[in-house]
Amino acid sequence: MPSSSISISISISSSTFLLPLFFFSLVSISPSLILSASVVEDLNNLHPPPDFNSTIIKNCLNIPSLRYCNYSSPLDLIEIFKSTIVASHLCNESRNPNCVESFPKIDLHSRPKIAPLYLSFTFFWKYCPLTILSINLSNNSLNGGFPSHVLQCSQIQSLDLSHNKLSGDVPVQSLSQLTNISLLNLSYNHFSESKISDSYFFRRFNSSSFLHSGLVPDRRGFKIKVIVFLFGFPTFVILMVGCLGWICLHRPDFLPAVLRRKYKFTPAMLKAATGGFSANNLVGKSEGVDIYRGSVRDGSQVRIEIYRDEVSGEERRRFTGECEILVQLRHKNIVKVVGWCDNRRLRAIVTEWTDGENVEMWVAGSAPPWKQRLKILMGVLEAMRYLHEQWPHVGYDLRTCSILLSNNRQPLISRFRIGDQISNTRKIYKYGILVMEMVTNKRPREEFERGEEEFIEWIRMHYPENAHMVFDERMRKTGNTVDQATQGIGLGLMCLDLSRKRQPTFDEIPSMMSKLSDLCRVPSSPDYKISHGGKGHGHGRNQSR
User: Fold this and answer.
1) What pLDDT does residue 5 have?
2) Is the pTM above the cut of 0.70?
């Protein structure tokens, strides 16, 4: 036969039959054989010779222990023949010195391309040559379970499956039947851990046979895990508690709503809301007070009024008590207080943001008509009555610079004083000053040397005959506006009377303001203005008595 087809002679010499325990007593391989085809090609192309069966019978008569001596069907005969082909190739791949005479080892160390192929030939392992004493399949990245069919070579003395990716259970019972094995290496795999200490078989080998195999607990690794757990877990807990504590103290807005202190702000929250107290968000500044526009975590815009002066613990507690009251105020003409900060170095009140200006800026810049000014005065009065009835101990600032305007031109009282015991008489007096400021567009504290006292004298000097001389020059004086504004001054002067003889009460002022509001809805006419002029002066004189 040509050498390419691997010549296999069936004329076997008697010496070949007598090779002890050697699988190749079945066939004689020509010494001049050159393996030029792959094992797969030979398995596909070569077929048993006609006298192959008789040759097997003769061999079994001489060496009954040969593994193929118990074949029982033609299919077994074909498998036996194929196993001879695989044996020829595997012997050479394993670099055995003389494959014609002996096949002592299977060495496929670091041969990941062919090792899985030879493992797949189960018929070869079924008729494993008796001369094989060593099997090395290490470092081949073999996957899957333990290759149990290798154990059919029960005569082996050495088995190395280390440095692979084998997993699952190890067939301890089958391994225990390998009585000749003295060297076993299953290290560096991923086998399932088993109680090998209960197995006599595993006691035959030292721990290096199972290093990082997954079969036995890695004591060193276990110690490391224990150390990591004993020190790492408490450290992790401490860090988590520390982080949670920091969040609770500095950024409680990151916590769920049920865990947060309602209305409570911290310096870190205010810093985040204002972009690090950025100058771009600074909207107002005075001695000891900075006013910022900010955005809190829920996206809402807020006004943050920061007091940077250091105060005593008692003052801080009083400040906190005041803020706890302010957050409860609910009225359309009172700015909503969102919360506060009472840190030792930083105190702040956080309110809802309004894009509108304050009343002082609005009157000075827009020169609104009397009807709109009266609407502001009515709104402020409603807020005053609410506070008088439900929060009588809460004081407030009625200066035009402290009253904000909402987007729909509603006045909002924004500054409060709690516990100052301001009398109702004084609150009504302040409302009278506000009425005068709205009519005149004057700032008593800035434009008059003696402040409010001189401001009031100046108005009384012109009221009622020349009341129009104190009106805001830019306010349109059409129709009955002059008479309405004059009556507004009269109401204001009554509020300024601290003698209690003429000062109206909180119950009387609303009806008086309503009459002024009703006058704004009366259409003007030439006849009305002429007759009203006389009546207006007469009314003014009566008021001055």
Assistant:
1) 31
2) no
